[in-house]
Write a structure and sequence with these properties.
The chain has three domains: about 5-40 and about 60-110 and about 235-305, 3-Layer(bba) Sandwich (FAD/NAD(P)-binding domain); about 115-235, 3-Layer(bba) Sandwich (FAD/NAD(P)-binding domain), CATH 3.50.50.60; about 325-390, FAD/NAD-linked reductase, C-terminal dimerisation domain (Enolase-like, domain 1, 2-Layer Sandwich), CATH 3.30.390. About 20% of the residues lie in helices and about 30% in strands. It has helices at about 10-20, 65-70, 130-140, 150-160, 180-195, 240-245, 290-305, 375-380; strands at about 5, 30-35, 70-75, 80-85, 90, 95-100, 100-105, 110, 145, 165-170, 200, 205-210, 215-220, 225, 230-235, 235-240, 250, 255, 270, 275-280, 285, 315-320, 325-330, 340-345, 350-355, 360-365. The strands form seven sheets. A five-stranded parallel β-sheet has the order 3-2-1-7-19. Strands 22-23-26-25-24 form a five-stranded antiparallel β-sheet. The longest helix has 18 residues, at about 180-195. It starts with a strand and ends in a 14-residue tail after the last helix. The structure holds flavin-adenine dinucleotide. Flavin-adenine dinucleotide binds near residues 291, 319 and 320.
């Protein structure tokens, strides 16, 4: 294999490049990145950077030297616009075509935007520029309405409250995160936000973003109008599957790949937020929008592109920080699972265990208790005796 092209230049892409070099690939390696930045971490954009506690430079994954040292041709500010499978080449918005022996799609996801009047005035949060704009708005603003009670919406709420803003968080469902955490733990998260003064409105939908012709003045929701000078839309993300789709590759909720992250075309792979991959541990197809998944799949694809036999066989993992709620979650629980809590909920030091109908542990979350996630990971998929569950301290 002489030429590999990675489309996208986020965490999954850069980890794939690193892995390919570590696995001994000495051919030409090109990475195409739409953004004008070197690859960077997104988690700080809704946490330390947004809170003004960390300079943006700390978010970059590697220095510029890394790319020259590893002979990776990083093409920043360039978009891949076509994937021509017959000719084995990738079209760029610069007019060039790049040949490849293998290509890795790592184009990530983009924020979902609700079709509402005035929606163009809402802040989205995905890129450095989005975070810089939102940071400036927080510094100058007084009242924020956040549409969507997912992880990013909740993290932004925590940062904005800490900065002294009035914050209303609008969630369409019965509780923020209920679909992920189930009722009991979702209630804990909602209570935390309420205690910190976030006005959490559930069962509410936004119908319009209002302005005075120049700036945002509020939102019209199901039953009332809420004043705001900042509106943040945080209603999830959509995988960027356009290239794969137009090339005729199977796409469902993401680009469909097997357990080695290979699409229906054996030269094309997909990793990170974009990939709907066969997970051999959970025996299901999964698309995961988390940092750890992008990193691990990047590592894995560096092996499988070169013919390695490793597979996607791990449980998903993610983390968040909101006020004094700081946690790691491993597994793939369902909102209908039963939950057992061990430890001290009020002190934000506990472990939540999710159990499926067959008594198997589907997921676990350590809150304020550290260095236990590997132990929890090893328990996922096993039958557990509830009387023996502890907070592992
Ligand atoms: C604000 C925020 C906070 C987060 N916090 C957490 C957290 O606390 N914990 C956690 O586990 N996860 C978190 N995540 C999720 C995590 O950051 C993502 O899962 C991860 O970034 C996915 O990496 P990726 O490389 O697949 O995609 P991305 O990071 O989206 O990178 C894809 C890149 O490809 C580029 N691209 C797209 N199309 C093209 C094209 N046609 N040509 C060239 N380039 C293209 C994009 O511009 C982008 O730069 C957060 C995400 C965000 C946005």
């Amino acid at each position: 294999m002489d030429e590999i092209v990675i489309i996208g230049a986020g965490l999954a892409a850069v980890t794939a490049a690193e892995s390919l070099r570590e696995e001994g690939f000495v051919g030409e390696l090109t990475m195409i990145g739409k953004e004008r930045h070197r690859p960077y971490e997104r988690p700080p954009l809704s946490k330390e950077f947004l809170a003004g506690q960390q300079p943006i430079d700390d978010a970059y994954l590697f220095g510029a030297d890394w790319f020259t040292d590893h002979d990776v041709r990083l093409r920043s500010g360039v978009t891949a616009t076509a994937l021509d499978l017959d000719a084995g080449r990738i079209g760029l918005d610069s007019g060039e075509w790049l040949g490849f022996d293998a290509a890795i799609l790592a184009t990530g996801a983009e924020p979902r935007v609700l079709e509402l009047p005035g929606v163009e005035r809402a802040h989205l949060l995905r890129t450095i520029e989005d975070a810089q704009r939102l940071r400036r708005a927080i510094e100058a603003g007084r009242r924020m309405v956040i549409v969507g009670g997912g992880w990013i919406g909740l993290e932004v709420a925590a940062v904005a409250r800490a900065a002294g803003l009035e914050v209303v968080l609008i969630e369409q469902g019965p509780l923020p995160l209920q679909q992920v955490l189930g009722e009991r733990v979702a209630r804990y998260v909602a209570d935390l936000h309420l205690r910190h003064g976030v006005d959490v409105r559930t069962g509410t939908a936004v119908e319009e973003i209002l302005d005075d012709g120049e700036r945002v003045t509020g939102v019209r929701a199901t039953d009332e109008t809420l004043p705001a000078d900042i509106v943040v839309m945080a209603v999830g993300a959509t995988p960027r599957t356009g290239l794969a789709e137009s090339a005729g590759l199977p796409v469902g909720d993401g680009v469909e790949v097997d357990e080695r992250l290979r699409t229906a075309d054996e030269r094309i792979f997909a990793v990170g937020d974009i990939a709907a991959a066969s997970n051999t541990l959970l025996e299901t197809r999964l698309r995961v929008e988390h940092w750890d998944n992008a990193r691990r799949q990047g590592e894995l694809v560096g092996k499988t592109v070169l013919g390695g036999t490793a597979v996607y066989d791990w449980a998903p993992y993610f983390f968040t920080d909101q006020f004094e709620f700081s946690m790691e979650y491993v597994g793939h629980g369902s909102p209908d699972d039963e939950v057992e809590i061990r430890g001290d909920l009020d002190a934000h030091e506990f472990i939540a265990y999710w159990m499926g109908g067959d008594g198997q542990l589907t997921a676990a979350m350590n809150v304020g208790i550290w260095d236990v996630n590997d132990t929890l990971r090893s328990m996922i998929g096993t039958r557990v005796d509830r009387t023996e569950l502890t907070d592992l301290r």
